[in-house]
Description:
The protein is mostly helical. It has one domain. Helix 2 packs parallel to helix 4.
Amino acid sequence: EQEITLQNIVLVLFDLLKKGQWREKIEASKSLLYLYRTFDRDFRNPLEDIVLPQVEMCEDENWQVREATVRNLVGYGVWSLEVVGALVRRLADGREEVR
């Protein structure tokens, strides 16, 4: 049994983000943003620890996951070339909701 820590909660949410059903992925993404907004000072390197690992979800097969990921990435307000590049690429997404 794992200890309940912010780090362990984040790890569980990332596992859901990668392996869950599309609705679970969306909820995990929203939960990660909530944790960041609530405990931002506890993330030493938010770009590396919580934002960049989500960039790949911009390519998810499900448009709802892509849309939620784009919205949430903007919500962090933590920028890098990788984040901006992923957002720019989504401007060409086949779904208007994602753009």
